[in-house]
Design a protein that fits this description.
Elements (H helix, E strand, L loop, with lengths): L6 H4 L12 H12 L6 E5 L6 H13 L13 H8 L5 E5 L6 H11 L9 E6 L6 H12 L5 E7 L7 H4 L3 E4 L5 H15 L2 E2 L1 H10 L4 H14 L3 E2 L1 H7 L5 H12 L3 H13 L4 H20 L12 H19 L4 H11 L9 H20 L13 H12 L1 H8 L2 E4 L3 E6 L9 H8 L2 E6 L2 H9 L2 H10 L12
Parallel strand pairs: 1-4, 1-5, 2-3, 3-4, 6-7, 9-10
Antiparallel strand pairs: 8-9
The structure holds adenosine-5'-triphosphate, magnesium ion and zinc ion.
Magnesium ion (MG) binds next to helix 3.
Length: about 475
């Protein structure tokens, strides 16, 4: 039986040119090599499968290639080949997860005193360096402080914050970035092309997305997809492999969503689960589709389920659905969470924006308080505007908030001015210049007397309105601090 080498290992970049992404790491290391400014201690930080080990090995080759120190190692000399294989005697790959203790570091320290066996530099790649014990770090610190020449340390870690500051300050740190989708696709294409695997571009995109940012994971998925699709990578086979829910079901869901047909939405969820699909994957697809729809609508493109009118509501739905996904991950039965999310849509019609709320509040206030509020009636026959008329103008020019304040204020007309009495806290919110223009006379704002204010506080109109709209009740009072 022939030995099968997984893609992720087979296609490990062998030189800087083959590395995808990680530009700043690569550029800095290349320059350091060219300028002969190699640091003796590096930290390579970043999540799994982003190229920390890969770049450590490339750097080792750069320093030990028989051609000479170079940022383009030959890849053919004995040293290069041994480094690629992981058998080069001057490259030490130490797994700190299983060699955490001070003795392990002591071994390194002893070794550091000897000259390299074959190459120019000895390179110690300490993987999962954050796992070292405190004593081990302390022991390492001394070595990093007085480094014997021709020894280079690379501390690779997925958890940079666990590396003590004392160590960090003696190392040059590189943060490895997660590749974006197109970088992963580029990598997968490279593999497909060199393996002569037929592929659909979209299928590679789906794999890239499913690998959630890890290069190694994407290669493993490609491995799997090649076997699953019998040598061909198609959207259909990839989706099937990943347990994606057929488009027809997603389509059904969105049709019901459009009509807020809660009953049938729940039926879809139930049947997806019954068919043996992973509900979390289903929900992720729904969220992805919802996101695409929202982007389209925002760009002014209508779509087959919704129009731009629905944006506000869809954003709300998206919030509910996103929350459900997070909750479902920590919940034994995700179905219940998703059913609940759908049930919440029933109350969507009751969502009122703050603006609407204020306006609704105002209308009702107007009706109930209209008569007793009007302290003065302005005579129209004198060529003056009526107070009603003025207030309408206020509403259209200054908005509902100012209008509602004035509507419940006590207004007195004087010879050459209007005095508007409002709650003390509201005095500063009104712009007298704007009001004077609309009233046609100088407007002065005065605070209501303390006694009146307290009385008003108790029966706060707007609070009453909110209570009525939301069918709520007051559970506690807080003192206002002006
Ligand atoms: N930047 C990259 N460009 C191309 N391929 C990459 C890149 N990063 C990772 N890979 C691929 O992923 C595989 C794993 O990468 P590597 O072993 O370097 O990851 P790592 O960061 O050391 O991960 P871990 O934290 O798990 O040790 C490589 O063999 C290679 O195939
Ligand atoms: Mg590694
Ligand atoms: Zn070489």
């Amino acid at each position: 039986m022939s030995y099968y080498e997984p893609f992720s290992r087979k296609y490990r970049p062998k030189n800087f040119d083959e590395v995808i992404g990680q530009e700043s790491v690569v550029r800095t290391l290349r320059n350091a090599i060219k300028l002969n400014r190699i640091s003796n201690a590096y930290i390579f930080a970043g999540s799994r499968g982003l190229g920390k080990t890969t770049i450590s090995r490339i750097l080792t080759k750069c320093l030990n290639c028989e051609v000479g120190i170079t940022d383009k190692p030959c890849g053919k000399c004995e040293n290069c080949i041994e480094i690629d294989k992981g058998s080069f005697p001057d490259m030490y790959e130490i797994d700190a997860a299983s060699n955490r203790g001070i003795d392990d570091i002591r071994n390194i320290k002893e070794n550091v005193g000897y000259a390299p066996i074959k190459g120019r530099y000895k390179v110690y790649i300490i993987d999962e360096a954050h796992m070292l014990t405190r004593e081990a770090f302390n022991a390492l610190l001394k070595t990093l402080e007085e480094p014997p020449p021709h020894n280079i340390f690379i501390l690779a870690t997925t958890e940079l914050h666990k590396i003590p500051d004392t160590i960090r300050s003696r190392c040059q740190t590189f943060i490895f970035k997660s590749p974006n989708k197109s970088e992963i696709v580029k990598y997968l294409k490279r593999i497909c092309e060199s393996e002569r695997i037929e592929y659909e571009e979209k299928a590679l995109e789906i794999l890239a997305e499913a690998s959630e940012g890890g290069m190694r994971d994407s290669a493993s998925l490609l491995d799997q997809a090649t076997v699953f699709g019998e040598g061909k990578i198609t959207v259909k086979s990839v989706e099937e492999m990943l347990g994606f829910i057929p488009v027809s079901i997603i389509d059904k869901f969105f049709n019901y969503l459009k009509n807020k047909d809660i009953k049938n939405l729940i039926t879809v969820i139930n049947s997806v689960e019954k068919s043996g699909y992973d509900l979390n994957i289903f929900w992720k697809q729904i969220i992805e589709e919802l996101h695409n729809i929202l982007v389209d609508l925002t760009l002014g493109k209508d779509n087959k389920y919704f129009t731009t009118e629905d944006i506000k509501e869809l954003i709300y739905i998206q919030t509910i659905f996103n929350k459900a996904l997070i909750e479902a991950k920590n919940f034994p039965n995700p179905k219940h969470i998703y059913q609940l999310a759908v049930l919440k849509l029933k109350y969507l019609n009751n969502i009122v924006s703050i603006k609407e709320l204020l306006e609704k509040g105002i209308n009702i206030t107007t009706k109930s308080k209209d008569k007793n509020l009007k302290e003065i009636e302005l005579k129209e026959d004198n060529g003056k505007k009526s107070l009603d008329y003025i207030l309408k103008e206020v509403k259209s020019k200054l908005g509902g908030v100012v209008y509602s304040i004035l509507k419940s204020a006590k207004i007195e007309e004087r010879e050459d001015s209007f005095i508007v009495f409002v709650n003390k806290s509201l005095v500063k919110t009104l712009d007298t210049r704007e009001l004077s223009n609309i009233f046609g006379k100088a407007v002065k704002i005065e605070p209501l007397e303390e006694k009146v204010e307290k009385k008003e506080d108790k029966k706060d109109e707007s609070v009453e309105k909110v209570l009525e709209l939301f069918k709520g009740k007051i559970i506690s009072y807080k003192k206002k601090n002006n």
